[in-house]
Amino acid sequence: MFEDSLVESAGKLRTNSKYTTLVSFVAQCTFIFILVLIPLIYTEALPTKTLLTSLVAPPPPPPPPPPPAQIVHVEKVQSDIVEGQLRQPTKIPNKIKQVVEDEPPAPAVSGAVGGVPGGVPGGQAGGVLGGVLSAANMNAPKVAPTKVRISQIQLGSPISAPHPLYPPIARQARVSGSVILAATISKSGTIENLKVVSGHPMLINSAVEAVKQWRYKPYVLNGEPVEVETQITVNFNMTGG
């Protein structure tokens, strides 16, 4: 054994097996292959955070800045009208334009007022159709209205008007005033369709009972008696009742 450790004994040592080198090479290759194959089989042992970080895409570049706003020059038109009123001009224009109005054309043929253009002078106003309509309007019979509306003053005083009785309860309460009634006077002068417009409740019944007995002179229009719609006012006062 001591002899094997000496340098001088080099070349004299001999191995017992000639396959030692081949076995050693195969063993080393097998060991390297196993080291490479283990990470492929057990992938959970790989550094996932490092892989994910390396696979993240970089952020997109920022958008370009907006273009500068264009300044639009607005030409201000100076007007001589301020708040609806014409003001004095600040300068005299170099050239003043004259406005000449066109004269209206003279009528070719003078005819009747309201006549048809191009008609015969001195003819009928409105032409043949106008003459026919005028004649029809003149010969049409006038229809008198069956009912008119006039005021109490135009109607005049009634020919029979009993005074209303002053209600005792209203007299004790010292209630006075006017009662306004809407009525229709028939062709014979009697009161019809009597309705209350306004008045104190204590005085209305007495006024209605009295006006029902009033009689008027028939109102004549175009020679024919007609019905009249009007308002009648009944006054109550403490002195005259």
Offer a few descriptive terms.
241 residues, 5-stranded mixed beta sheet, TolA/TonB C-terminal domain, 7 strands, 17% strand, alpha+beta, 26% helix
Descriptive account of the structure:
This protein is an alpha+beta fold and about 240 residues long. It has a domain at about 145-235: TolA/TonB C-terminal domain (2-Layer Sandwich). Helix content is about 25%, strand content about 15%. Strands 3, 4, 5, 6 and 7 form a 5-stranded mixed beta sheet that branches. Strand 4 (about 175-185) and strand 5 (about 190-200) form a beta hairpin.
Mean pLDDT: 74
Q: Architecture of the domain at 147-236, according to CATH?
A: 2-Layer Sandwich
The SSE order reads HHEEHEHHEEHEE
Low-confidence stretches: none
How far do the termini sit from each other?
Answer: 170 Å
Query: In terms of structural class, how would the helical and strand content be classed?
Result: alpha+beta
Largest sheet: 5 strands, mixed
- The top level CATH class name of the domain at 147-236: Alpha Beta
DSSP E strands, number: 7
Helix content: 25-40%
Total number of helical segments? 6
Task: Round the Cα radius of gyration to an integer and report it.
Answer: 63 Å
CATH superfamily of the domain at 147-236: TonB
Task: Estimate what percentage of residues fall within beta strands.
Answer: 15-25%
Characterize the overall form. elongated
CATH topology of the domain at 147-236: TolA/TonB C-terminal domain
